[in-house]
Amino acid sequence: MGRFAEQRGRPGGRRPRDWPDRVRLLTSARKPGAGDRPFQAFPRTTDAGTGSGCDHRTHLDALPPARLQHFYLPWTSYLIVPLFGLANAGIVINGDFLVRAYTTPITLGILFGYVLGKPVAILGMSWLLSRLSGGRIKPTVGWASVAGTGTIAGIGFTVSLLIATLAFSGPQLAEAKLGVLSTMIVAPLLTWVVFRITALLPENRRAVALLGDAEQLLDLLVPVDPDRDHIRGPADASVTVVEYGDFQCPYCGQAEVAVREDLLVDDDVRYVWRHLPLTDVHPQAQLAAEAAEAAAAQGAFWPMHDLLLARQDKLRIMDLMKYAEEQGLDKQRFHET
Q1: What is the rounded CA–CA span in Å between residue 75 and residue 12?
Q2: What are phi and psi of 22, to 5 degrees?
Q3: Model pLDDT, residue 79
Q4: How far apart are CA 87 and CA 107, in angstroms?
Q5: Which helix (H) or strand (E) holds 231?
Q6: Residue ranges in the chain modelled with pLDDT below 50
Q7: How far apart are CA 248 and CA 309, in angstroms?
Q8: How far apart are CA 135 and CA 122, in angstroms?
Q9: What is the pLDDT of residue 8?
Q10: How many angstroms separate the first and last alpha carbons of the chain?
Q11: Cα(200)–Cα(55) distance, rounded to whole angstroms?
């Protein structure tokens, strides 16, 4: 799933009022290339309706494997994998060792190389490239986000431990491993400090620091066309959010709740859906997109859109025909379209 935001008439990059936290940081997954235009195969009508009245269960509610993945992800990411790496570090940590190691050039060099070298390199090269290009090439987010990216990149872990075992041995290896493990504490703390300071800024300055100003936002490769695109929200909204979506993509299903409950409540934002079925991983996505367009031919794109995202585990032909019947569509016309 990819999202692109277009902002117009906003001095200083000011966000629309009361834009919720859950959708403030929507950025492009990648800029679409010339060949990424499968949404153009579905040139149908525009419906500004809300499409309410269907069950808005997400993909996580529907598929047991997805629920299990969602449940175990925090445990594996924040407990099991770190414990595995720590247990395999193979060093004995005590007071005497810490006092000695934190005065050696190996431990300090690795620690400062990560927690200072990474942010300096990322910030410095981003700034230098922006200056040398005259501003034509620069980060699409604010400088606080670039700084936070640099500090969090200072975490060294499994690969760093592997390289240390190849480069050192004996007491020097233990010192190198301590330097790597120390980055896991210092780098997140520095990142927290960066964003904590950013949070203290006034709202407008904070938005620019995190998201950049209006000039830094990428324009859409293909402008929004009311005759082709499916649009929710006012046509004259100063902010346009375009989603290149896949009806079988679990992340599109999760995002639909935030879009409906948070994004669409703002009367200065319009939301556009464009089809991007990833048929190599989602075999039923193309058929679901065609079903949505068949519904659009009868003025029911958004009700069908919401229903398909709510029932991502049931997108076979018989299911789609059942949905058309639920929506009160002409089944014969729906099938032929």
Answers
A1: 41
A2: -65, -20
A3: 87
A4: 19
A5: strand 230-232
A6: 6-62, 216-217
A7: 7
A8: 17
A9: 46
A10: 26
A11: 40
Residues in the chain, total: 337
Q: How far apart are CA 295 and CA 292, in angstroms?
A: 5
Both tokens assigned to 54: 């269907």
Give me the residue label for tokens 């902010």: 239
Give residue 230's pLDDT: 94
H or E element at residue 7: strand 2-7
Structure-block tokens of residue 10: 């906003």
Q: Is the dihedral of CA 9, 14, 20, 21 positive or negative?
A: positive
* Residue at token pair 């929506």: 327
Q: Do the beta carbons of residue 116 and residue 156 sit within 8 Å?
A: no
Distances in Å between the Cα of 173 and the Cα atoms of 10, 110, 184, 336 are 54, 12, 17, 70
Which tokens in the block code for residue 101?
């190691």
User: Could you tell me the two tokens for 136?
Assistant: 């034509």
> 27-39, pLDDT tens digit by residue?
444 444 444 444 4
pLDDT at 86: 76
- Measuring CA to CA, which residue among 266, 269, 215 is closest to residue 243? 269
Pairing of strands 269-275, 2-7: unpaired
C-beta separation of 177 from 90 below 8 A? yes
SS3 23: helix
Q: Tokens representing 100?
A: 């000695």
pLDDT value at residue 2:
54
CB of 327 closer than 8 Å to CB of 297:
no
